[in-house]
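Dear support,

Our group has been running a series of protein-ligand predictions, and this particular one with zinc ion is the one our PI (initials K.S.) wants archived with full inputs and outputs. We had some confusion internally about which version of the output was final, so please treat the block below as the authoritative record. The input we submitted was:
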Amino acid sequence: MTTLTVLGSSGGTPTRTNPASGYLLETAGMSFWIDAGTGTFMELARHIDPGTLDGVVLSHLHIDHCADLFGLYGYLAFGPSGEIPMPVLAPPGAETQFATFARSTEGHLHAVFDFTEVDAGSTVKIEDVAIRFGEAVHPVPALVTRFEMPDGILVYSGDTGPGSDLPQLAESGGTLLCEATIAGERDERSYPYHLTAFEAGRIAADAGVRTLVVTHLASGLDPDRALSEAATTYAGEIILATPGVEITIGENS
Ligand SMILES: [Zn+2]
Ligand SMILES: [Zn+2]
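Confirmed final output from the archive:
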């Protein structure tokens, strides 16, 4: 059985009731924290002992996707601890950036985290899970990610505008977790580094995914509007990512 639990889904900034981006992927006795957005460490700890994670996968280094890695750092280095060094897959520059902020260029950070800097085209295998990365279109190095488990596939957009590798990575993907930051149809004034709900639906339809999970709605955006806009371009199942929602990715293994 493979499940995805939403820890937070607020686009850009946490709100009073919704952390920024973070998800817990559990499969065959393994668990991965996908994006460590602001507020998601506490949500993660409600579901599992963070020290038992098999890895952390970061789409990019905007703080709404990575800041709570410091929560896990404290937990592993100075708190209850866990299985260290813990794998962290992240775009280039991550290790230096985190070590600089933590003032830990030679210290604890490297003892508790085993950074692997990944890029578009990278594939990392952790036991039975293959994690493939593609290019996102965003103002900083950012990745779209495909998780291939024995019983299912999860494709995650991270933050991206149109023109990314997401359509290719989503091909025959079971579940597509896709950002839908922007309301309405794209026009010449639309921000080029995020997707609309219409675009999320189109990518899901073209790739033939089984389920579309829309996430990273800009705070203040009407969720019902996002769902109905995605439904105009995608006829399959659509789920709104909100904290605590658990989505079944695969039934076996
Ligand atoms: Zn974001
Ligand atoms: Zn971003």
